[in-house]
Amino acid sequence: MIRVLFVSQTSACFELENDAPYYAPQAYQVICNGEKAFEGDSNVFSLFGLKPDASYELTLQFMPKEEGVSPLPTETCSFHTKADVCAINVRDFGATGDGKTDDTCAIQTAIHFLPKGGRLYFPAGTYSTLPLALKSHVTLEFAEGATLLGSTDRASYPVLPGEVKDMTTGEPICFGTFEGLSQPMNQGFVMAAYAEDITIIGPGTVDGNAQNTDFWTNFKDVPITRPRLFFFNRCENVCIHGITGCNSASWQFHPYFSKNVSFYQVTVKAPKVSPNTDAIDPEACDHVNIIGCRFSVGDDCIAVKSGKIELGKRYKQAADHHVIRNCLMEFGHGAVTLGSEIGAGVKNLEVSHCYFRQTDRGLRIKTRRGRGEDCVIDQVAFENIRMDGVLTPIVINMYYNCCDPDRHSEYVWSREKLPVDDRTPYLGSFAFRDLDCTDAQVAACYIDGLPEQPVGEVVMENVNVSFAEDAKPGIPAMEEFAKQRCRLGLFMDNVKSIRLKNVHLEGVDGEEVVADHYGSLVRE
To answer: Which one of 51, 80, 109 terminates a domain?
Structure first.
């Protein structure tokens, strides 16, 4: 069955409903209004260049994988594109797209004067520009071959204050942030603040161009944090469909205290060695969809966040109602990560039908003493996931030792049972179902809870992990005094309840289950 995920004036996104992670069971041809559009093999696919306010009939004809195998039944659906309020070509405002001329003034002017509900169209070309600011009720469309190219001059990115006080009420107003704190930052390459109804579509590219700057070489001990590729601060109803984002100075897509944010078949790329180039980091957001996307970056592919303890206590805005489905994640530190800046917690998270390939870790949860009592992560489900060449498929770490001045302190690393107070995080129930992991190296699962606040419940059901023949040792979790491991099975320390059903491990060195300080352990 075909599910219609999203329809704009000129694009549409669809999802096949099946049990296959990311890739469809069989390749297929997409036929639109009787004409072949393209061939595909993923569960999520898109059409671009459609006409506004038009009806379409879509047919999927499956092709057998090999001779003698019958194709799946044909799938069909119909949809109608949205009507346009108005559509404007950015070149009518003077943008050249020649890759040499500074097109900032033309693009920003077009955005500023675009009527409510208008669509700004970028035809093929390279549009060199300084940082851009968006407003409410606009659509930006990047045609195939259109590239928005970022400035290489660090000084051209305005500095936003972390927060300022309202002159009348004295209330804080946040503008800049990084790693869970309000702090000065360079403006995002494409940014919106306190805005709504923003749509960015098309098969084009937004390139931060950081590979040609000093952002990746001079990133430590600088007073101003690097710009994101996209930064949405307290925005609502934002949709990104189809574009490729690449080479950001730091995090690539960063929705911050925003609501109803969706990413459909977005591609995010950065070299494996590029620092902090996370693909999508939703922070303290409500209702986020990340569906059909493909990531290959230098840090975590997706990192769900909700601020450090200060922001958690002040706003108590958990990361809530996040759906991550049918995504392909490659070469990052972690495929799907929770934390470590999760001072207001995470709830209602579903990760399913994803494929992780050669990431350091697969499903990664990281927190530490000092994240606070509002850092509650509970009722999290990871289902129907395939991993290939992931060093450690599952990591839950409550001793994470990065990103804070006290990260190497005894308070963070102590194995003693410390008092539970307003600085102590809580990890509740986690379910891992229908996971197929091949060529692991370091550990199948590494869970390290606090003695004073053990992880509540871990359920593993229908989980298969096999190790590579040439597996090499490594560190499963970033924590103080971490030991190198290789072919370690299920390691669990300080977990209240462990239930293992139909869990199979192959190639483990030593005991399959290494558990200590647990309440109950049931293996079926």
So the answer is: 80
